[in-house]
Amino acid sequence: MSDIAIYTPESDIEEVVGYILQHGERTNVKRNDYVVRTGEESGSIFLIRRGAFKCVRTDHRGRERIIALAFENELMGNFLTTRMKVPSLFDIVAIEPSVIYVLNLAEHFDFLMRRIDRHEYVRPFIEALAYNHLRKVVSLACCSPWEILEELQQRVPGIFQRINMKDIAAYIGVSPETLSRRLAET
User: Fold this and answer.
1) Neighbours of 91 (CB within 10 A)
2) Nearest CA-CA partner of 68 in 167, 165, 174, 178
3) Closest by alpha carbon to 90, among 59, 48, 112?
4) How much is the pLDDT for 6?
5) Which is nearest to 101 in space by CA: 129, 72, 126?
6) In this prediction, what percent of the chain has a pLDDT beyond 90?
7) In the beta sheet, which residues pair with residue 116?
8) How far apart (Å, rounded) are the C-alpha atoms in residues 101 and 60?
9) For residue 111, what are the contacts with CB-CB under 8 A and spacing of at least 6?
């Protein structure tokens, strides 16, 4: 009897991380450098080895809205826009000096996609990443700013030593002054 590999999103993502480390291009990114710009096609997936990034978009009032934050050992990119060959919906910007591994999706299509009977299927990790992104978007839309902040502090201990108050406030959806007052109360 042969061994059967049991699929879990974590095991598939671990396989992708290993693949990116082996085949990706190691790149140093300076603070405030863009790795993806709104309106451009990206075509890459990024693995953060050191540092932090924000996914941002300017709203109708001209304010920066932070859609997501990404840290060490997390994947980031515009996976669906890359697959659908449409422009990026947001910028990805380094918050601090960072080291990333960049994998061009077109050059590694066979690893990232599965072909069965001449049909193409995305690997399950793409669905896991899309689910995690959707979960973050729903959380940002439905949770209180203070619930979002608590989750962020649990996810990244010492977050206030790494990221400025303005970015944290933009991520949780309050003004820097409101965040400062809240922190002074606790």
Assistant:
1) 20
2) 167
3) 59
4) 44
5) 72
6) 45
7) 119
8) 33
9) 19, 23
Q: Which two tokens stand for residue 62?
A: 């001209």
Please give the Cα distance from 20 to 18 (Å, whole number). 5
E strand intervals along the chain: 25-29, 34-36, 44-50, 53-58, 64-70, 75-77, 91-94, 98-104, 113-116, 119-122
3-class DSSP assignment, residue 167: helix
pLDDT at 92: 93
Say what the alpha-carbon torsion angle 31, 32, 33, 36 is, to the nearest 10 degrees: 130
pLDDT at 5: 44
How many residues comprise the chain?
186
Distance CA 15, CA 89 (A): 27
Which residues touch 166 (CB under 8 Å, ≥6 apart)? 176
Rounded to whole angstroms, what are the CA distances from 118 to 14, 108, 113, 115, 121? 27, 18, 12, 6, 10
Maximum Cα interatomic distance, the chain, rounded to a whole number of Å:
64
Q: How far apart are CA 57 and CA 89, in angstroms?
A: 8
Distance CA 116, CA 150 (A): 43
The pTM is what? 0.81
* Cα separations in angstroms, 152 against 145, 170, 178: 10, 13, 17
